[in-house]
Amino acid sequence: MVGVQSHGTALADAAVDALPGWVERSVARLVTAWTGAPPDPTVQEMAREAGRRAAVEVGGELRALVEADVDDQHATPLSLLRRATRYPTEVLRASGVPPVERDAIQERLLPDDVYDLAPATFADVDPALAEPGMLWGAAKALAHRRRHQPMTQPRIVAYVPDLMDRSKVAAAGAVTFVARPADLAGASEDADVVVVDLTRPGVVDALAGLGDRRVIGFANHTSRDVMAAARAAGAEQVLARSEFFARLDELLG
Q1: pLDDT tens track of the chain, all 253 residues?
Q2: How many Å apart are CA 202 and CA 213, to the nearest integer?
Q3: If DSSP codes are grouped into helix, strand and coil, which group holds residue 177?
C-alpha cells in the first residue's frame, strides 16, 4: 500500500503544478479561436485566478482520493481532472465564447463539457502527468490484485470478436468470452477484469452498464474519439491495440 500512496502523492503534486497552466491554455486557445486574437488582460487575469482555484480545489480532491484505501477509491484521478473543465468553462462563458460543436457521444457522456475540454489522458493536461499517472495506475492495480486474489488467476470476461486477438487474450487466464456487448454486464458480475475491443459497434455504450468493474479497452491508435469516449464512460485503462497486446501478461496475468 505504501507504493500506491507514494505514487498517488507524486501524481497529485504533479497535477497541482499542471492545472493552472492547463486552465490558462484552454481559455487562451478557445478565445483565440473565437475572436482571432489572444485574450485581453482582464480575461487573462480571470484565467489565472481560475487556474489557482483549480489547483487548490481539484488538488485537494486528488489528495483525498489517493490517500484513501484502494478499496475506498470510488473515482479515478483522471475523472477528477475531467471535472476541472468547470474552471476554464466559467471564464469562457463570462467572456462570451459560445459552446463548440461536439461529437454526439461526448455530448451524452459529458453534457457539461460544452467547450470539449475534458482530457482523454493525463498527458492532455500536461505531458508531465503521463508517467506518474501510469505508475499510480499500475501500483493500484497490483495492490488490489494482491489483496483480493493472492493465489489465483484473475477471472476475465471479454468481448473480443477477432479470432486471433481472442486466442491471445485466452492465453492470459480464465477467460469467458461473450458474443455481444450487451452480454457483458450479466457475464461480468463476478469478474476481476473486463476486456473489450473498443472498435466494435455498441461497446462504448455497453460500458455504462458495468458499474465499478475494472475495464480494459483497446483500439487502433488512430481511434482517439472512441478511446476518449471509453474513458469518459468509465474504462479504467484504454490502450492502443499494439500496447495492449505487448503488455498482455502484465495487464491480465
Answers
A1: 446 888 899 999 999 999 999 999 999 999 999 999 999 999 999 999 999 999 999 999 999 999 998 888 888 899 999 999 999 999 999 999 999 998 888 888 889 999 999 998 899 999 999 888 888 887 887 777 777 765 567 789 999 999 888 888 887 777 899 999 999 999 988 888 999 999 999 999 999 889 888 999 999 988 999 999 999 998 999 999 999 988 888 888 6
A2: 18
A3: strand
CA distance linking residue 218 with residue 34, whole number of Å: 35
Query: Any idea where the domains of the chain sit in the sequence?
Result: 2-132, 149-252
Residue 19: how many other CB atoms lie within 10 Å: 27
Distance from C-alpha of 11 to C-alpha of 1, rounded to nearest angstrom:
15
Grid cell, residue 40, equals 485581453
Model-level pTM greater than 0.70? no
Residue in the structure block whose three cell numbers are 503488455:
247
149-252 fold: Rossmann fold (3.40.50)
26/88 Cα distance (integer angstroms):
7
Could you tell me how many helices (H) and strands (E) the chain has, helices first? 13, 5
Q: Is the CB of residue 87 less than 8 Å from the CB of residue 53?
A: yes
